[in-house]
Each structure stands twice: as C-alpha cells, then as structure tokens.
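Hey, I was hoping to borrow your eyes for a little while. I've been puzzling over a protein and I'd love to understand its fold better. The fold is given in discrete form, as structure tokens running alongside the sequence. I'd be grateful if you could look everything over and explain what you see. No rush at all, and the record is pasted right below.
>
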Amino acid sequence: MNPMVHALSMAFAMFWEILWALILGFGLSAIVQAVVGKEQMTKLLPDDSPKTLAIACGLGAASSSCSYAAVALARSLFRKGANFTAAMAFMLASTNLVAELGIIMVILLGWQFTLAEFAGAPLMVTILALLFRTFLTKHMIDEARAQADRGIAGRMEGHAAMDMSVTEDGSIWQRIRSAKGFTAISHYFVMDWAAVWMDVAGGLLIAGALSAWVPASWWNRFFLTGHPQLAKWWGPLVGPLVAVLSFVCSVGNVPLAAVLWNGGSSFGGVIAFIYADLIVIPVLNIYRKYYGAKMMVFLFVTMYVSMSAAALVIEFLFQALGLVPRGRHARIVEASISMNYTTVLNIIFLAIAVVLLWRFFATGGAKMLRMMNRMPEQLRPAAHAHAHAH
C-alpha cells in the first residue's frame, strides 16, 4: 500500500472508531455548559485555598475541552479578579477532567488510562499550587495582570467569552428541556466542535502517519523498553516534551497517545503526554502574549514539573495496584466500515449531531461562528481596571 494512503487509512480508522464518542462527549459538555453560568465563576475563585482549587477543578470539568478556549477563559477570569492560581487550576481541569476526553480514552486506550487521567489531574493541580505558593511572587502576578489587561488577542477569545447558559429558576432538567436550553446546548455543541476540529484532525493525521511509518523498534529504543525500571522514570519525563513538539492539543492528542502506548511508552509516560496539551508551542506563545515572557517560562517549567511528577506518582501507584494493562493493544485498526456496534452508534449520534446543527444555524449560529476568534469588546483593555492583585 502507498505510504500516504496507509497513513490516511489509519487516521480514518481511528476517526471512525471514536466518532460517536466525540459526539457524545461534546454533547454532555454542551449540556453542562448550558446550565452553568460563567459570570459567577470569578466570585467562586477568590484565593488558592484547597476549597477554591477544588471548585476551580469542578468548574473546569464542566467547561470546554478546547485548550485555546480554556486558556482564553482563564485569562478572562484572572482579569475580572479571580486568583491566578485558581484560574490556572481551572484551565488545567478544562482539558484534563472533561467527559469527552475520558470517553475517547476508554475507546482507544482502555478504562485504566481514563481512571489514571482523572486520578492524576487533581494531583497535578495540587503540585502546581504548591509550586506557585513557593516560587510565584506578588511582583510576578502584578506584571502578569498588567500584561493581561493590555488585552492582546490569542485564539478562541469569542468562544471563551460566550455565555449562553440558562440559569433562571427551574430544575436543571427543566432548563435542559426548555427552548432556550435546547438552543444553548446546540450553540455550545457546535462552537466546541468548531474550536477543536483542527486539533482532532491534526492529532489523527499525525497518529496515522506515525503508526504507519515509524517502526515499533524505533519506539522501543526511544522509550527504553529494554530497561523496564529506567523506562518508568523516563516516560513521564519525556512524555510532555513529545507533546510540546507535536503541536497537538485538546482531545486530538489521545490518538497519538495510543500510538505511543503501542510503541512502548510507559503507562505514566502516556498520561504525562496527555496532560501536556497546555504546554505545546502554540499555547506557550499565547501565554507570552497574555502574561509576558517571564510568566510564560514560569508556567512552562512549573506545569512540566507538575505533569511529570503527577504522572510518575500515577505510574508507581497503578503498578502497585495492578492496574497497568499488561498488553499494548490500543485501538489502532485499518480503515473499514462494517455493520457493527461502532457503525450503529455512529449513525445514531450523527443523527443527533444533525439535529443540533439544524438548531444552531436556525438560531443565529452562523454569526457566532464568525466571532469565535474576535476579541469581545468587554475584554478590551479600556473595559476594566483592577486595583487588587492576588
């Protein structure tokens, strides 16, 4: 088979395998976002106490999985007065504790990886908070706030600022079933898809190419599979660096994680790789715009340490509990469409997606799509002044 065709075939196979799960995950995320307002988030994040960080993780889990939108929303919360550490905890949770990520990981990697992801993410936030308390100074925060208040645009500013949530009286179920709720769900669903489709496509194409072109022997040497004890330490250290160089973030890095696992990466190395979607090169450049070069370097170093340390703890904990899969059988299959449960689920969820798309465009969604990358007026530099720092 032609090498290019082989790579595209592998990419399509993975896409077909996870399509229904992507639609389900984004649907669940849209429902949660539709009943959780963003305006109240800032008030819930006043400091870096354990309670506030737990709330930040909960709010992040209820938010979008798009890395760029998460970064933009974290800056928005910070500019409106949220504690910087809490805003960063929210950002990490927005890409590491969301439903769609867990579902995709179950499909491609197995439930053990999903459990490890969700167990390690709060640990990563805790380590990051401790590093911030030790090394982050008030002067650094003041400099970051001054830079943030300049309002330099990153990516997905409009998407991050959008708040279609239905928060009036009534039970959550009543809000979801209402006409406004249906509209809000459709808007969040489509906007989230529009925000991440390039990352998903990029991740699938890279994963397909690496799976088809890079021999297993190369991966085995790279991940030191001939030295099992050393590999357990090496994986969490090198996993985030592979992510930085891959440029892939959001849920798009899960297919590539499957390739790394099949190629010999340690369990913790795969987890560290998935955590690292918020330190890929394009995101680091946005940190530089948002908070300045000094804070960008500080965020990279502290996040890298937090991700590697949390993944290393998960590696040894899951080894001790016997939860690390013995085989390396991540779902990377050749392209084929047959009438099996995957195809049936894809048909069902594609029909649901069509309904949500219809509602989206019937309620002014096209205009919102055009505003996804525009800086909202209320976030421009002259809009707010902040007299306090955290």
